[in-house]
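Narrative summary of target 7.
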Amino acid sequence: MTNKPSSSLTTRIVIAMIAGISVGSFLQWLMPDQSDVVVPLYLFDLSIRGLLVDGVFEVVGKVFVASLQMLVVPLVFVSLICGTCSLKDTTKLGRIGGKAIALYLITTAVAISFAMSLALFISPGEGVNMVANTTFESREAPSLAQVLIQMFPSNPFQAFAQGNMLQVIVFALLFGISIALSGKAGERVASLFEDFSVVIMRLVTVLMNIAPYGVFCLLAGLFTDVSIETFGNLIKYFLVVFVALVLHATVTYPVLLKALTGLNPLIFLRKMRNTAIFAFSTSSSNATLPITMETATKKMGVKNSIASFTVPLGATINMDGTAIMQGVATVFIAQVFNVDLTLSDYLMVILTATLASIGTAGVPGVGLIMLAMVLDQVGLPVEGIGLIIGVDRLLDMTRTAVNVTGDSMVTLIVGKSENQFDEEVYNDLNAGQKIEDIDFSDLKHN
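Modeled conformation, tokenized:
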């Protein structure tokens, strides 16, 4: 007898998400301003914050995120090798890469242009009183030449250990091409990697089934210390960025998908639900990458030869959500400091942010580094970034969900254009649903 889940994975994650926000909000009301509630017991005093917020919620949440991140390098490496060596014509790789990069850059440019237009119309910075002595120490972003040089690993094992995704991608591509060109020996190695891929994807399925618990703890911990009152005068800025992110994900992406492929965009949005929730909860495109990969291949019907390249590439260079934040933040900071930007300044912001989406890929704190670079280009004070740091956490969660949605949209377009796409799988609303259910009782019989 099998023990099947009583509800779908999506339902369980949404329930966990709502429960986490509710519990966190209740604890925020119970313990305002990061205070604590101590319950006296017979032998010791029990700290609610120490037990739940800094204990259970933090431990389970961080373990969940770490478990997802654990899969990123092996999944990208194995999947990319399988995809590359399966391409009979290795010259296709350049064409696929060109299409993907062009689409990622175009959507980034559209995102920041739309965000700046919306911010100029609403003027979120008008009348905002700047907090005195607000500072932010920016780090220098690498030059384009440095990025190109650093894409090629001198030690691939070091790249694996550090999680340097650009170097892992380059090494995997070269290794996969070598396998494809190695005849019988290459076929044996390719078969081994195909088996590795099956095992890793099964491990993804296992982690997806414990996701509701991780999502609950992540959001409960976050909402314990974040409330609407903390936004203060920045609530208008927050809402402008949030609305721009939602419209980009639900309007721009579906329109592009329909125009370039003719596919039903409503099916696309429906199948992205799980992945978007994962991205929102983890705030990391890389941590969500295993889920994005599975959604693109198993639920949307894109062949692994395409998805194994475009999805990791998108997780590395696709910054649509970050570009939207930069566009609104630039207008907001300019208005706060009463600086009038010219049309050429706005065009410079669009160009700089679009190119920087590749130039700062993989750098810690990439969003703030890119914003500091953009502000420098148009003469705005970089310390203005300090004004928005306090409200950036929830926005970071939302823009990560937008980024992974863009990754999947571009993957679909490239897969369709290369005839590496199964439209029957895409139109099947239940496609991939069975793999989300895993019967752990099978372990008893092995």
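The first strand starts at residue 38 and ends at 40.
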